[in-house]
Amino acid sequence: DAKQKGKNQIGFFRKDIEEDVIKRLNLITELERAVSNKEFIVYYQPYVDRDKNIVGLEALMRWKKGDNILLPSEFIEELEAGQYIVDVEDLIIDNVLDDISELGFSFPVSVNLSIKSLFRKDLSQSLISKLTRRKVKGNINIDISHNILNIEIIERSFLENFEYIRNLIENLKKFNIFFSIDDFGTGYSSLSYLSKLKVNFLKIDTSFVKNLNDKDTKNVTNAIIALSKSLNIKTIAEGVETVEQFEILKSMGCDYYQGFLFYRPMSKSELHKILNS
Ligand code: C2E
Ligand code: MG
Ligand code: MG
Ligand code: MG
């Protein structure tokens, strides 16, 4: 009867929650182990100019769990919930700078920084010392007079404490560190913020690129590109998968393009091959 059915549903419901909790607890335990074993690695996705020349790279976190390479969607939320994200992003920056000096890239590499890393008290100091340490070691490829690091921040980060982020950008700019706004258009930030933050790049979110056939989306994308141009901010379109999207964005004057149409994220050794081919 109905009463019995209701009871069973509650039973099922509770079992679902239990399974979820157990899954989460397992993930937390595995992440703890992964952090101490330094199982996080960097994949690189190049982005290109309108002639398809590589002009920059984005460093993307991967979890090398045994023979599997896990995507951020499978673990990043849990990592960001704790303090581990700060250690892992610190490790990623070290790896990126080592890879830059080893492979000798001549273009900037973006790293995605979480809110927790951005609000580290010692972030500026740590970045500057990481850069200078490698230069001092005599590695000529790390030249801090060039822009080699590009920090990607999401809108949520500067809504948290606008003045802090504004100062961080101004301060690190003196050390030739670039800043980008990631996933632009997905948050709630006011356009007036854009003129007050001296960022170098704005990344147009995939959700716009996917819907360029829609008239309104197309108009908004066009406006974002025009606004960026007037503020001297370079635009990067994210998630470009088709020639048609590439052509439309080119006609709008978008500066750079990132997406599977050009390159997928790849390991350091794959990148090495591409850069030398
Ligand atoms: P994101 O920063 O917006 O990075 C771009 C994501 O779009 C990457 O996913 C990339 O593989 C994917 N992508 C690029 N081109 C295409 C395309 O043409 N089609 C499709 N479908 N996808 C494309 P990924 O590597 O899975 O990373 C997802 C998100 O995880 C990133 O989005 C970023 O928010 C976060 N993430 C990655 N690494 C880090 C990190 O070191 N720290 C933090 N805090 N977040 C990170
Ligand atoms: Mg990004
Ligand atoms: Mg993005
Ligand atoms: Mg995105």
TrEMBL record:
Q: Where is the EAL domain?
A: 24-277
Q: What is this protein called?
A: PAS domain S-box-containing protein/diguanylate cyclase (GGDEF) domain-containing protein
